[in-house]
Amino acid sequence: MGWYHLFYQYNPETAIWGNITWGHAVSKDLIHWLHLPFAMVPDSWFDINGVWTGSATILPDGQIVMLYTGDTDQLVQVQNLAYPKNLSDPLLLEWVKYPGNPVMVPPPGIGLQDFRDPTTAWLGPNGEWLLTIGSKINKVGVALVYETTNFTSFKLLDGLLHGVPGTGMWECVDFYPISTIHTNGLDTSTNGPNIKHVLKASMDDDRHDYYAIGTYHPIKNKWTPDIEKMDVGIGLRLDYGIFYASKTFYDQFKQRRILWGWTGETDSELDDLLKGWASLQTIPRTVVFDQKTGTNVLQWPVEEIESLRFGCTEFNEVKLDPGSIEQLKIDSATQLDIVASFKVDEEALKTTLGTNEGYSCSTTSGGASRGYLGPFGLVVAADENLSELTPIYFYIAKDTNGKIETHFCSDQSRSSLALEVGKEVHGSKVPVLEGEDFTMRILVRDQPTSYFIHHNNDVFNCLNNI
């Protein structure tokens, strides 16, 4: 197996935004990374104000083409082409910018700063390559479609891949097929029976990543959501914590689709300068279609994470009384991989009267809220006096008609004594299907903590500021 390549936007001079350069790192296992020299720097008129988001496409003959957004000397967003200088070099150390750049400029009706982030290309029905670019028309977030045969000359196709009124600028658009009957990933050009397509966009207005599942019509180059009220930007989010500018790629070696994301921090600029860095890359996740619900994707940390496990400690049949905190004794560690399952008393679930209609994680007092059926979960990154702690919990809400809704929340309000960091409570409703336990997986590290719900679609990536 070869190398995984990660290209990332980076300011090599300081931990403050600016001088956007492409860093480059490689890995054999997605866990241990080797940093390489910069892949591209802003040194040409067509990218002098930043080498921004891009995507690679691997052609059938093994050639690699990289399309990326550059900000010109006139502050115009354009699309540029680059390719490896030596394709036989497995580390791809040197990249060449196409001398004819830019290869795409903002078309009529599109703002000069509203034209960015080309996707990986896919093969169309006539053998042409297609890709989409994020933009907006007034307040309508849109995905434009371009066609090419050589990646140096592009044609804007009529119409849109998709657009949603009121969602504003779409950034970092992602578009890929997903099997509805298998758990393996699919090459970006795959289409046919038992395949849906995921359309995802990062919303510049609220800085969250939204997606929807739908049907791609290759002849018309149109995509339509399966459920209109769950369209891109108004329905599902990929992550309900701090997570943005995500992108997937197809791992041909393990036949899986892998999702990357970027986690911004709430530290002050001074803190960033003191520590010498700002923001993080999330742990990569596999993405599959949820065959149980048929409405969402499932995400889970890549299996390679489990190679870091050692010194397992197991706790069984721990009974939690209402309002109690049970300390679990483990060896000291800077990283934890926790899997916890909870069972709720069935009689209590049936007999409890509805009192929590309209419950929301973000509008309550977090883990300090007390109800008949929650919160219950884990407290991590806690000190001895519980003056600093991060509750991660389920909360079961029941309305007056007996309808039950389960919420999964993470409370950052007491994660740090520092005053200038974020204190939000993140969360959302989650489907817990019949026969399923309330199961969570928590990856605790030195800074960010990621939370996953077993067999469900919701993920939270938050900073504990510890």
UniProtKB/TrEMBL annotation:
It comes from Lithospermum erythrorhizon. GO terms for molecular function: hydrolase activity, hydrolyzing O-glycosyl compounds. SUPFAM superfamilies: Arabinanase/levansucrase/invertase, Concanavalin A-like lectins/glucanases. Gene3D superfamilies: Exo-inulinase, domain 1, Glycosyl hydrolase domain, family 43. Keywords: Glycosidase, Hydrolase. It comes from the Eukaryota. This is Glycosyl hydrolase family 32 N-terminal domain-containing protein. InterPro entries: ConA-like_dom_sf (IPR013320), Fructan_Metab_Enzymes (IPR050551), Glyco_hydro_32 (IPR001362), Glyco_hydro_32_N (IPR013148), Glyco_hydro_beta-prop_sf (IPR023296). The keyword Hydrolase applies. Belongs to the glycosyl hydrolase 32 family.
